[in-house]
Amino acid sequence: MALRYFDLAEASALLPRLRDMLGGLRRLRDEAVLKKTELDLLWQQLEHGAPVLARLGDEQQTLDRVTTRLVAVAREIEGTGCILRDVDRGLVDFAHRARDGATVFLCWHLDEPAIAFWHGVNEGYGGRRPIADLRLDEP
Asked: What is the largest CA-CA distance in the chain?
């Protein structure tokens, strides 16, 4: 799949939508984790002879529905052209063509009000540098 390249304005324009989608993704992830814990407890109860088989089936169907919605939201996020890096942090990268033609990533996460950092393709989150250090060919 080819990278979609963003300029800073295009990436910034996506942030309100991404905030909503990432918030929803995190809620679905939390719901799935909770449901999985409940299922694990039901399996333990079943192993000890408790009559929970029907409830176990119902809870598994619920987890399946939540997982399906979670995958759909993750695909919707990636369908914008950005790269979802970390659900916990709400970390997203936007491919950007630097002035010298190199590909870099504009880097943003949910706790940040705006895109303020970038990093090289092999640097990752730990290599983030202020956006002011990146010479942008933008107004």
From this structure: 69
Span 110-137, average pLDDT: 89
Cα dihedral across residues 81, 110, 84, 102: positive or negative: positive
The C-alpha atoms of residue 84 and residue 137 are separated, in whole angstroms, by 25
Q: What's the pTM?
A: 0.85
Among candidates 37, 8, 129, 24, which has minimal Cα distance to 87? 24
Q: Where are the domains of the chain?
A: 18-80
| In the predicted structure, residue 115 carries a pLDDT above the cut 60 | yes
Task: Say which DSSP state 115 is in.
Answer: -
Q: Please report, to the nearest 10 degrees, the dihedral formed by the alpha carbons of residues 121, 78, 112, 69 taken in order.
A: -140
Helix/strand number for the chain, H first, E second? 2, 5
Question: Which has more pLDDT, 136 or 18?
Answer: 18
Q: Is pLDDT above 80 for 94?
A: yes
